[in-house]
Amino acid sequence: MEGTLTSPKRAMPTDARQIRSRKALNSALLALLEERSFDQLTIREITARAGTGYATFFRHYPDKEALLSDIATDEIGNLLAMTVPVLYESNSYESTLALCRYVADHARLWSALLTGGAAAIVREEFIRQARALVEEARTTPEWLPSDLGVVHGTGSTFDILAWWLGQENDLDAKDVATILHRLVIAPLIGDKVEKRAPAP
């Protein structure tokens, strides 16, 4: 799949009708992503599902990638802003658990973003935003290039969350946080797993 989410965030409309239209378009895209891959979707299908006119779409977005960009950029930003700053300052397990709980609380959205047809684009944006957040911090072991640490940590986190949401299992947020912390986070930042993560 081609494309990126690097386009600038669109200004939020202030008119109530425009706000409703944008929310309807966002919801429609998320619902359709649960049914088919992003590449298979058309703007006409999105507007039909949203109950808006075809021309209305273009008052908000130039293409479907821009719509996805708004949704994914906001959600990834929320997730990373909540977890990355506290990852190195306090209990890294608690930060990992907060991330998993956030994803669980917004499972429908994250399932569409992480396991749907747009997963490759979303993964790229996830890594891009994480790089920007930790650009100045030296958080990886000396032997590991910082950028590689970000790519590995973020990519592995993405893959574990996608695995969790993409199948039926009995794992809850706490179970996945323990797996994620022990497998990715603790080794990457040199945390003591035994002190941070309770036994499953």
Descriptive tags:
single chain, 200 residues, mainly alpha, Arc Repressor Mutant, subunit A, 10 helices, disordered N terminus, Homeodomain-like_sf, HTH-type_Tx_Regulator, DNA binding, HTH_TetR
Give a structural overview.
There is one protein chain. The protein is mostly helical. The protein has 2 domains: 14-61, Homeodomain-like (Arc Repressor Mutant, subunit A); 63-189. Helices cover 68% and strands 0% of the residues. It is built from 10 helices and no strands. It has helices at residues 16-33, 43-50, 54-60, 64-87, 92-105, 107-115, 119-134, 146-165, 173-189, 193-196. Helix 4 packs antiparallel against helix 5 (92-105) and helix 7 (119-134) packs across helix 8. The model is unreliable at 1-8 (pLDDT under 50).
List the helices and strands and how they pair.
Layout: H1 16-33, H2 43-50, H3 54-60, H4 64-87, H5 92-105, H6 107-115, H7 119-134, H8 146-165, H9 173-189, H10 193-196
Helix pairs in contact: 1-2, 4-5, 4-7, 5-9, 6-7, 6-8, 7-8, 8-9
